[in-house]
Design brief:
Helix content is 83%, strand content 0%. The protein has five helices and no strands. Helix 1 runs antiparallel to helix 2 and helix 4 runs antiparallel to helix 5.
Length: 155
């Protein structure tokens, strides 16, 4: 039977804790504390990684759908193709696939945001709210990645 990732990470944390208790060298002890912190963050991300990314995907798709009626025909076609392509791949729950979907949808949101800021010269009631919601979404995605991705690279 293959052990689960959380159980392996918990075993690694126990091993680090045991080693920390026995370690006398302050430099080695500091390195073990850093390693423990990295493993704890990875464990926390692993536990909520799929649901968090699915929520980001749902949010991005909702924002793109809200923007479809407001954009030019060419951008609408592009955004609809982005939505369709990513809807077709939603069943793949691998973290790399989810991140690729998020990147694709966020690129569409950036295009939508640019259009709303630069090209749209009307007074659509929900325009400002949609721009704010796009910013909020992109900021949340960036904040999650700023904490997690460097740690995945180290580990």
């Amino acid at each position: 039977m293959k052990p689960s990732v959380p159980s392996v990470l918990a075993a690694v944390l126990r091993g680090i804790e045991d080693s920390s208790r026995a370690e006398q060298n302050p430099v080695k002890l500091f390195e073990l504390r850093i390693l423990r912190t990295v493993i704890e963050v990875i464990n926390r991300d692993w536990d909520g990684a799929v649901p968090a990314r699915i929520a980001e995907i749902d949010s991005a798709m909702s924002l793109l759908r809200r923007g479809l009626p407001l954009v030019s025909d060419s951008l609408r076609d592009e955004l609809q193709a982005t939505l369709a392509r990513n809807e077709a791949t939603r069943s793949d729950l691998h973290l790399s696939a989810l991140d690729k979907t998020i990147d694709s949808l966020n690129a569409g949101l950036i295009d939508l945001h640019e259009y709303l800021e630069v090209e749209m010269h009307c007074t659509y009631q929900g325009r400002r709210e949609l721009i704010r919601d796009i910013w909020t979404h992109l900021e949340a995605c960036a904040r999650r990645r700023a904490v997690i991705e460097p740690l995945w690279d180290v580990a």
